[in-house]
Amino acid sequence: MKKLSLAITLLLLTPQLVWSADGDDSPATTPSSGSPSDTRVMPSAQEIRINGLIERLSITRAHEIETIEANGESFLGLFEESASGDPQGCVLMLHNDHGHPDWPQVISPLRHSLPEHSWCTLSIEVPDVEDRAARTTTEITSIDNDDTFATLPNEETVFARINAAQQRIREKGYNQVVYLGYRTGAAYALRYASENNITGQALILIEPRPIPPMTDFQFSQEIRRLRLSVLDYYFDRTHHAHQFARMRESAANKRTARNQSYVQINAVPDSRYDSSGDKRLEQRIWGFLKQNTIQRNQRKELPEFDKSLFFKSPLD
């Protein structure tokens, strides 16, 4: 009995002795932490979201899926053709942080509805902002001066993706591009438009939010540099939202290019995002585009009525 207890004790104290599963009685050592068989690359949260989205859309909307490449890296785009015979251009859409190109709020409703108003849509994958709190003190201190324009996390990657997406839009025959950003996507869209001195297009900011280390003030100062028309659609629900909106409006009033419109809409009366709210958002954006892009020159033929023998005017 003592010998049996001693044997059991030795086994418990020697974890590297693992009996092989194929019936061989010889002990097998566990793989070391540095061995290739022990190396597993787990998919990121974004990869899981994107792969799940592709799998879902592949069932009924596979024709919308675009694989685009920028800087040697592939990313997802969702394209929807203009449903009009008189297409005006394309709306390039950037979703919120930790979202995806078919996000149910704002992005998905608009990318499906705007094609009915002569615009194609291309919604692209924006990389997650990782480890926000882990940025070094040096990085934050370097943009502590509010007169300095902050470099956004993943800025180079996002800008390269916007450039590649615009190229894909041109390949599909569209010349005019409108930039639309939702929440943190608005920060990227705004930064891209101001940094590249974009003119002759339009910018749509929906619930705009700066991405740290960018501050509210720095976000607003980017608006001063713009040379294109802007729609600023937000919800004035909190004191902070109110102050941030006034800051953006003040910066817009100080723009050099005052001939370009800046339209700010407090969307609280439109309610939150639901089917009716989505419809009002669609109408607001379409109205803005008709007034501030080449769509204002769009001419549509009047409908023709078949005047039969007993014709009665459809207006009666």
User: How much helix, percentage-wise, in residues?
Assistant: 25-40%
Which of globular, elongated, flat, extended, rod-shaped describes the shape? Answer: globular
Strand arrangement within the widest β-sheet reads 3-4-6-5-7-8-9-10
Which structural class matches the secondary elements? alpha/beta
Mean of all residue-level pLDDT scores: 81
Percentage of residues in DSSP E strands = 15-25%
State the helix count: 9
Poorly predicted runs are 1-33, 132-144, 298-316
List the secondary-structure elements in sequence, H or E: HEEHEEEHEHHEHEHEHEH
- How many β-strands, per DSSP? 10
Rg value: 27 Å
Distance between the termini: 107 Å
Describe the largest sheet: 8 strands, mixed
Summed up:
The chain is α/β, with parallel strands linked by helices. The protein contains nine helices and ten strands.
What descriptive keywords fit this protein?
316 residues, alpha/beta, 8-stranded mixed sheet, two-stranded antiparallel sheet, 9 helices, 10 strands, 18% strand, disordered N terminus
Helix and strand topology:
Layout: H1 2-12, E1 18-19, E2 27-28, H2 45-60, E3 65-70, E4 73-80, E5 89-94, H3 107-113, E6 119-124, H4 137-142, H5 155-171, E7 177-182, H6 184-195, E8 199-206, H7 216-224, E9 227-234, H8 239-253, E10 262-266, H9 275-292
Parallel strand pairs: 5-6, 5-7, 7-8, 8-9, 9-10
Antiparallel strand pairs: 1-2, 3-4, 4-6
Helix pairs in contact: 7-8
